[in-house]
């Protein structure tokens, strides 16, 4: 009950206004939302790129952090969007997904979209956080990055965890029900 009430308030606010470079593209229910983010400064690593974040909420949100990961959408995907801006586009305008949604290259973002950010972990999360504040933190993390590299051990980590796409996770190895909350990161790099 509290989760639905809180997400209802966040959704109402998000539909009215979000910070520049952050767009809500899917919020059909209170289980999963998808948000596009862009880096607005002149960072050459992310110039003219848009990235898609997936937020999966438990029944304990906002007491527990949502599961947040980037999702890869191939170019020219026909993924549905719920924003009125996308719905109202005429056929003469280019498809906003024609360039797709890549996973950003960053020392704290694995190539399967999983983000190593203390804010998303149990110890770093606070119920005062919101979808908007998480997006702003990730946007800031990208803005400040100067390294065009993945985390150490990226390939092995991604093979063990699977891949998140527009329709959900695939390729999980291990027990049933395994999710992002099962990942335990050591947050030791404040330089990126």
TrEMBL record:
All copies of domain UBC core, residue ranges: 2-189
CDD domains according to UniProt: UBCc_UBE2W
Record Pfam families: UQ_con (PF00179)
Region of interest (Disordered), residue spans: 74-103
SMART domains for the chain: UBCc (SM00212)
InterPro entries recorded: Ub_conjugating_enzyme, UBC, UBQ-conjugating_enzyme/RWD
Stretches with biased composition (Low complexity): 74-99
Sorted UniProt keywords: Ubl conjugation pathway
PROSITE patterns linked: UBC_2 (PS50127)
PANTHER family: UBIQUITIN-CONJUGATING ENZYME E2 (PTHR24067)
Protein name: Ubiquitin-conjugating enzyme E2 W
Organism: Exophiala viscosa
Upper classification of the organism: Eukaryota, Fungi, Dikarya, Ascomycota, Pezizomycotina
